[in-house]
Specification:
alpha+beta; Alpha-D-Glucose-1,6-Bisphosphate, Chain A, domain 4; 3 helices; 7 strands
Length: 128
């Protein structure tokens, strides 16, 4: 079955772009909200640890204070990825996080639920 693309937007009115960037782009920051622990090999291979499970993802793109994109090891021969993007609204200065991910059609609701939960933790860690 093919995975389908979905995008989620999370408005973060009082967020600091520097705090957000550190939380989404560094192993220490990601281990605060995304995984229980993270090891990095060669600055591109991230192994995410959750309790007794681990998954490897490759950093495929990073634009400072803008976005970070990973591809799970199991998806390396596909176009599937997940991306976390910081969007700044020029008029108000407000920020949003834009999540782009792929999921099997019958797993999309679970993936959205998981992202909602993770972003809730991220907001608490960022002091929002």
């Amino acid at each position: 079955m093919n995975k389908t693309l979905f995008t989620l937007e999370y408005p973060l009115k009082s967020a600091s772009i520097n705090i957000l960037w550190n939380l989404i782009s560094t192993p220490m920051g990601l281990s605060e909200w995304f995984a229980d622990g993270i090891t990095v090999k060669d600055d591109r291979e991230f192994t995410f640890l959750w309790e007794k499970n681990e998954e490897t993802a490759f950093l495929i793109e990073s634009k400072q204070n803008v976005s970070i994109r990973f591809q799970w090891e199991e998806d390396t021969n596909t176009d599937y990825f997940f991306e976390i993007r910081i969007v700044v609204f020029e008029v108000t200065g407000d920020l949003s996080l834009l999540i782009t991910d792929f999921a099997e059609p019958d797993e999309k609701a679970d993936a959205i639920f998981l992202w909602n939960h993770l972003i809730e933790i991220l907001c608490r860690k960022a002091g929002m």
